[in-house]
Amino acid sequence: MRFLLYFVCIIGLLSCQTQIPAKTIKSNQEQTSDFVLSFGSCNNQTLTNKLWKEIVKNNPDVWVWGGDVIYSDTHNMAFMKQNYDKQKNDTAYQNFLKKVPVIGTWDDHDYGVNDGGVEYPEKDRVKELFLDFIEAPANDPRRSRGGVYYSKTYTVKDNSIKVIVLDTRYFRTKLTKDPSGVKRYIPNNYGEGTMLGTAQWQWLKQELDSSKANFNIIESSIQVLSYEHGFETWGNMPHEVAKLEKTIADSKAKGVIILSGDRHIAEISQIQIPSMNYPLIDITSSGLTHSYSSYSGETNKYRISEVVAQKNFGLIKFDFKNHKATFEIRGLNNNLYLTHTQQY
Questions:
Q1: Which of 61, 146, 286, 296 has its CA 20 to 30 A from that of 34?
Q2: CATH code of the domain covering residue 246
């Protein structure tokens, strides 16, 4: 679907703004935050991203790329570099970089192949281009290992937030196609396949087990909780979803929150894991330059919000004193489309 949307938006047959009127809600302008995390995904470098200046209005402390930084499905590394350079040198993005620190991960279109995984032969070459794009230093551990998974802890006085960035491409094994053709993929119920690979799973467990942070943010380029739509999702490997939930719960890490992208919509999903004293939230923000504006509905048993089909970005505003996180989805003119506050 995302591959198709890319080309449809390019040729102008799909309006990415006007088919579904945006529903805006009134925000609490008096709200104060100790730390603001901004995030988003699906940024076509050939289209104008009008949201950079809107994101800055919220005074974010960090921007987390959720993948599809560019759209460049190719085996041609010169062409791939050209597209990364085009995005990096974009004037609006350069101005954004001067104001907001940037970290993040890739998804399939900046990885190099639609719905791609472990089988993509150019992944190590693209990895270097991606790391150059986000300005990872020469001695960064990602330069000498497979994948782009990464973590960074932000300290605010006596409090902290750990951002754990996953790689759901480099190690991910083959998905199960729907033989009926009704959906693209169906869940693999035989316990086969891996989303993260052995080394990354071990790393993630260590990151969570050792974390002393007030909040732990896990960035996954694809959705974790929503699984019924039939496109890419952790739900295509139910055993990996169960493993992730157990890893999170067993770690006793505080305030774990999942960020995701990929779908060209925004929504908030939530599940209650019995051994956790707070719900696990997966907030999806996508896309920045083109959206699924013809969206007419799909099932998601864990959804607790409306679905936003306009171009959007996400925010999480943290309140350390009251142990709260406020989730927001915003768009053009900084319009607020979704908001949800959770106590931790």
A1: 286
A2: 3.60.21.70
